[in-house]
Design a protein that fits this description.
The complex is a heterotrimer. Chain A is of the alpha+beta class. Chain A has helices at about 15-25, 30-35, 65-70, 100, 130-135; strands at about 5, 45-50, 55-60, 75-80, 85-90, 110, 115-120, 140-145. Chain B is built from 15 helices and 23 strands. Chain B is globular and about 95 Å long. Classes of the chains: A alpha+beta, B alpha/beta, C alpha/beta. Chains in contact: A-B, A-C.
Amino acid sequence: MKKIYIREEYCIGCRLCEIYCQVKHSKSKKIIKAFKEELVDIIPRVLVEEIGYNSFAIQCRHCADAPCVDACISGAMKKNKNTGVVTCDEDKCIGCWSCIMVCPYGVIRRNVSDKKIVSKCDLCEDEDIPVCVKNCPNEALIFKEIDEKIQVTR
Amino acid sequence: MALKLNQSEFEIERDPEKCISCQVCVRQCSNDVHDFDSDNDTIFSDDSSCVGCHRCESLCPTGALRIKERETQFKTNYNWSAGHLQNIYRQADAGGVMLTAMGSDKPYPIYWDHILFNASQVTNPSIDPLREPMEIKTFIGKKSDRLEFETNNASGKNSFKLKSKLSPQLELSTPIIFSAMSYGSISFNACKSLARASQEFGTYYNTGEGGLHKDLYKYAGNTIVQVASGRFGVDIDYLKKGAAIEIKIGQGAKPGIGGHLPGEKVTKDISNTRMIPEGTDAISPAPHHDIYSIEDLSQLIYALKEATEWTKPVGVKVSAVHNIAPIASGIVRAGADFVSIDGLRGGTGAAPQVIRDNIGIPIELAIASVDERLREEGIRHRASILAAGSIRSSSDIIKAIALGADAVYIGTAALIAMGCHLCQKCYTGKCNWGIATQDPYLTKRLNPDIGTRRLLNLLRAWSLEVKEILGGTGINAIESLRGNREHLRGIDLSDRELSILGIKHAGEAW
Amino acid sequence: MKAKNNTIKENKIIDYMIIGNSAAGLAAAEGIRKLDKDRRIVIFTEEEHFNYSKPLITYYLAGKADIDKIYFKDEKFYQDNDLEVKTKTRVEDINADNLMIRAENGDEYKFGKLLIASGGKPIIPKIKTSGTGLNQSGKSIGFIDSTNYKKIDGIFTLTTLDDAIKIKKYIKKNEIENISILGGGLIGLKSAEAFLELGININIIELADRILAATFDREASSIIENAIEDRNSKIYKNNTIEEIYVKNGKINGFRLKDSEETSCNLLVIAIGVSPNIDFVDPGKIKTGRGIIVDDHMQTSYHLLKRQPLLPVYLILWIMTAKR
């Protein structure tokens, strides 16, 4: 299953990935309109963590055995057996935030801009590559299938 | 200080309709030009610190920024231009030597732009490089005076075997080599991109004065190692690893003086590579202190050949100065396998502005006179000529070769391919593109994968264009173009200039 | 979700039988399927609804969730995991010696392994009543307890979807403007949240000196108490209902321990749950406050039993069990 991986030695901390994620999940899907006219705060699903000059972007890992799916009390969080993508059905989500508490990567975000729910990476299922990967100016984000049982060393 | 005699060179135009206050510009500017005001959710830009590197404009997701040169409005004065006034203000402030970087930007005549190339018409038909073989492979090194063959008729068939021993050669798949840029003046990622691109394309890059970093040993087969006046990083392993050795006497941007890497930029990695203590200034003296005559140079050349068991070409790099022709002749007679000539507009990481802009001569004139002199003396074959100093396009390459060069060095062009915007502030170490800096926050910005790819693209594109131009004039091998002045015509040049270049004026025929 | 195909094909031995179609039962079914892809798994539930997420019933009550959207696992889950469900089938008795259960309608089923995941049922305290119209002869019964509380209109518990549906209908039909909740624990407060969302004022009557006494410390409890009291509601602490007034078979009001009297048309009793194990014979399978189990959750008769626990603990339990 292709997932998004970060090469932190090339992440420059510009946060363009966050911006394009916000555009993708906006109503208008147009960058200027989304930021200037849409009243609702759009939550980016990818987050750039920084310490000193080190930075990296992290988002949902779509875990094989996802703790968020187990923790979900309303059945909103589901892992698609075929694509492997873990998605949150926003109509069923009741904002109990149990998934946020159990996520070992801390990549599920609280979303109180409209209803009280959660937001997390959905691998941009209707795009050929996720918009964060496509728009990273330094190609730090890659979209690849990697056998995670083998440690990748560079 | 309160009295600002120095005006800022650039102004930043931000379109408020397009700016979404995403703060990418704020994060990416190493000169802290942009600042986010959280009270009213806008970004304020301080023009005075802007160096015109365009990093913010290039990354802005909505294209809201435009960097413009800001004309300082003095009373019109052709003699006392704004540049002169600014320099005096700065020197009156600080009392130091004015530094600058990259090649000279002064409006001296650019001879490349006054030379035109030929094409075939009725006779000697054009060749289509996509349909027929076009040879641009180039060999750098000493060519033999004569070749002897063994003939063997014993088995009844005529067979020939080469008897003469050839001098060591560098084989280039294209007549373009990456110029000397030291690790220290540019970042490791930049060096790595140059090394990888040379290996993948089949050409070479030059270590410059910075020594050879151990992580680049795997590209050693494509590395020309430089022995400069400071002898940084020079030991027997360094000499043996390189594919060729270049003794650096001078460079085009600062003829007559040596190099200077400030102690702040001498990190642990650079200290190891250059073999100097961490934090000390890396000063290359002006002369090699063991070369005070042409005989000393000859001695060093042969010492290096002995040390490397005569397996590698050993050459010499000089700046193009007034008497470049006899100097080159002397160097060839001293035993050099190649002579690199760096012209007036050569680039650098740091040099005093007065020296960069006023010392040396343009490379076009230098190559022409050197090639002419060596041919007259009958020693042209004993060394290859490498031309450096602002090769900006494939047409410059063609013209350089037609004037007599064997191959060209590209420095500035390679950096531009990797993202450089020629803001001329390399000496500050704050290069926003991750090229001329050692700051770990900034060096991340040059991803060697991307750098290598762009350099390969540049080499590929220029090589194809060279082939196209050659094909257009009915030539199918770059050998046939070398020194072939008949394919060039000057335009808007004086008789004297035409004579020095050795070319006719456009409109004149044979 | 509507109940579908009660697909008990023929009365062969059911390899894995699970009593209870909610979080625990379904988690167990999914876990069993990971290890055993072939044998039959049959789930019995006394409810008529397919399955639903218990925490969402108050959202349904508040009008925030559609009844179509509160399923916990969808039909595909049952198909993919090859599970059979028997709805509206309350288990009445476990015949441990013969590895058989008997349903309320008399049907008997044999099992290979049995998992009791029947959850909890609400505790109804014994409260004195007075007034009219409680039994056919019009005389007062004198008290309510778990056996007869349903005979009085307007007294509800809230642990199942059916409860929520009934309450919702009752509110609509009777134009209720305020509701009293006996019990300031998690269930009581979740129902309070739903009623406040509907714009109805509430009274909470709590035995301890603060609400959520079993879950939070004093400071946390007071934060929530303040939030509730800010919304036109009243919390009675250190108090309980001593007598319920009934009129014509409907609740009319009640008297508190401190003698204060209040009128009331709808009372929700939410003082806690106890394990839903009426069908377990303590002679064969040891029980105490729940079913007594060993480290492998096996009963004294080596059947499988899960303790009914509050939702929070259930989530953590499922996670650890599945590993």
